[in-house]
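Sharing a chain and its predicted structure for anyone who wants a worked example. Both blocks are below, sequence first, tokens second.
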Amino acid sequence: MWGRVFCIFFFILVLGSLPAMAQTITINATPAGVHPGDTITLNGSVSGIHTIAVYLFLTGPGLDPRGVTLENLNIPAGHGLFTTAPVDVNDGSWQYTWDTSVILGNLPPGDYTLYVETAPFDRERLGSEGYATATVTILPPENAPTPVPLSPGMAILALGITVTASSCIIRRVKNK
């Protein structure tokens, strides 16, 4: 009996003294500043855990604060809905190409945070480890038309045209 207790005690003591293998995960986003419709390469690595995939989601201006999938910005992350990227089991590396021209939803200009994690949790349920972040800046569209300000004279001219056209229409209706 005491031999068994000693073995259990020794086993717990030995396991407790071994350094725990820390789980690390990384993410890189290239380029870090893009226009809507551009492609972003996301990559990184995972160590200290054996996994076949990582889970990705996005937070930013106008998006659900829990995070959203990268393919559909209207779907909150979590509850089984994530963007995933396969992990190379030999070296722990992963890569995902995010084509922002084929997403559902709107990416207005601003700073966005990309999350990568090893477990399917949304932003509200993240632990202190097991995830990493990268910031991406969405710039205004390159081909956006530049608004041309109207001078006060144009407003007066438009008002004059409207009044003249209206009076002509009124006269025509009265003469019929």
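Comments welcome. Residues 5-20 have pLDDT under 50 and may be disordered.
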